[in-house]
UniProtKB/TrEMBL annotation:
Family assignment from sequence similarity: Belongs to the class-IV pyridoxal-phosphate-dependent aminotransferase family.
Protein name in UniProt: Branched-chain-amino-acid aminotransferase
Gene Ontology MF term list: branched-chain-amino-acid transaminase activity
EC assignment: 2.6.1.42
Record organism: Opacimonas viscosa
Lineage: Bacteria, Pseudomonadati, Pseudomonadota, Gammaproteobacteria, Alteromonadales
Catalytic activity: L-valine + 2-oxoglutarate = 3-methyl-2-oxobutanoate + L-glutamate; L-leucine + 2-oxoglutarate = 4-methyl-2-oxopentanoate + L-glutamate; L-isoleucine + 2-oxoglutarate = (S)-3-methyl-2-oxopentanoate + L-glutamate
NCBIfam families in the cross-refs: ilvE_I (TIGR01122), PRK06606.1 (NF005146)
Length: 310
C-alpha cells in the first residue's frame, strides 16, 4: 500500500489507522458539497516545542461555519480542540497541517438534511511544507487575475469555510496554473479585488496597507487577522476597503496570506511587476514577525500558541 500522509487519524471519536477512516460513496458531502472544514498549522518552536497556532480561533470558525448551515457538530469546541491535540500526539508530529472536517455522511438522496442530524467529524494531522513553495516565500509568486468571479453575496456564504465553496477556488487555481501563474486572484461580482484561491490579499502603496473587506466575498482569514494585528503593531495604517483591480498594478507591494500559504509575497499581477518585482520591505517585516512566532524571535503576547506536548 502507498505510504499514508500519517499513521493515524481521528474519526468520529476514535483514533484509528489512517486507511480505516472511510465513508460510503453515497456520502451526502460528496454529492452536495455539504461539509465544513478548517486548515490549521502546528509549528515546532524552540521554547515550547510543538505548538498549534490559533487553535481555538480555527475550531471556533469550524463551529461558526456549521452554524450558518444549521449543521450540528456532536462535540463541544473544547472536545474538538482536545481531539486536535490528541491526533498530533498520536502521530508524534513535530510540525503539522491539521484538517478537521465535519460532514453529512450516507443519508440517502435527499438534499435537505433533517434539522439536528448529527454529522461525522474527522481530524487529520500530517507534515506539510510551504503551500506555494519555499522559493515563493522569499521571492514571491506570479499571480494572475481570474476570469472567474468569487461568489455573489447571498448566493453561497463565503464567510463559511464550506466544501462546496472550493469549487470556486478550483476554477480559479486551475485557470491560473494553465496560464503559468503560481496563484490566481479573483474579483468579486462588482469587479473589486476579493481574494486568492485559498488566501487573503494585502495591497500596499506609499506605506498604506489595504486589505479587502468581508463584503468582498472573502473568507475572513485567521492569518489575515494575524497580519492586521502585526501591521498595526509595526505602526502601519490599515484600511479595509474595496480595492479596484488597477490598484494591484500600481502597488508597491502585495502579499497573500493563509494557513497553507502563510505569508507569501506577490511579485507580479497579470505580468505587471509589483513595485520592483520582488518581496517588498513591509512584507518582509510582516513575514519576520509572523515566522518569528515560530522561531522564537516574536514573543507570543497574544496567547496564539498552544503547546502540544507540555
Ligand atoms: N480564503 C480562502 C478561500 C481560504 O481557503 C483560506 C484558507 N483557509 C483563506 C482565505 C485564509 O484563511 P486562514 O488564514 O484562516 O487560513
Amino acid at each position: 500500500m502507498a505510504k499514508t500522509p500519517a499513521e493515524k487519524i481521528w474519526f468520529n471519536g476514535d483514533i484509528m489507522p489512517w486507511q480505516d477512516a472511510t465513508v460510503h460513496v453515497m456520502t451526502h458531502a460528496i454529492h452536495y458539497g455539504s461539509s465544513v472544514f478548517e486548515g490549521i498549522r502546528a509549528y515546532n518552536t524552540p521554547d515550547q516545542g510543538t505548538c498549534v497556532f490559533r487553535l481555538n480561533d480555527h475550531n471556533r470558525r469550524l463551529f461558526d461555519s456549521a452554524k450558518i448551515y444549521r449543521m450540528t457538530i456532536p462535540y463541544t469546541l473544547d472536545q474538538v480542540n482536545t481531539a486536535t491535540m490528541d491526533i498530533i500526539r498520536a502521530n508524534d508530529l513535530k510540525s503539522a497541517y491539521i484538517r478537521p472536517i465535519a460532514f453529512y455522511g450516507d443519508l440517502g438522496m435527499g438534499i435537505q438534511v433533517p434539522f439536528g442530524q448529527e454529522t461525522e467529524l474527522s481530524i487529520a494531522a500530517f507534515e506539510w511544507g510551504a503551500y506555494l513553495g519555499e522559493e515563493a516565500l522569499q521571492n514571491g509568486v506570479d499571480a494572475g487575475i481570474s476570469s472567474w468571479s468569487r461568489l455573489a453575496a447571498n448566493t453561497l456564504p463565503t464567510g463559511a469555510k464550506a466544501g462546496g465553496n472550493y469549487l470556486s477556488s478550483q476554477l480559479i487555481s486551475m485557470e491560473a496554473r494553465r496560464h503559468g501563474y503560481g496563484e490566481g486572484i479573483a474579483l468579486d461580482v462588482n469587479g473589486y479585488v476579493s481574494e486568492g484561491a485559498g488566501e487573503n490579499i494585502f495591497v500596499i502603496r506609499d506605506k498604506v496597507v489595504m486589505t479587502t473587506p468581508k463584503t468582498a466575498a472573502i473568507l475572513p482569514g485567521i492569518t489575515r487577522d494575524t497580519c492586521m494585528v502585526m501591521l498595526k503593531e509595526l505602526g502601519y495604517e490599515i484600511r479595509e476597503e474595496n480595492i479596484p483591480r488597477e490598484s494591484m498594478y500600481l502597488a508597491d507591494e502585495i502579499f497573500m496570506c493563509g494557513t497553507a500559504a502563510e505569508v507569501t509575497p506577490v511579485r507580479s499581477v497579470d505580468g505587471i511587476a509589483v513595485g520592483n518585482g520582488g518581496r517588498g520591505p513591509i512584507t518582509k517585516e510582516v513575514q519576520d514577525m509572523f515566522f518569528g512566532l515560530f522561531n522564537g524571535s516574536t514573543p507570543d503576547k497574544w496567547g496564539w500558541l498552544t503547546p502540544v506536548y507540555k
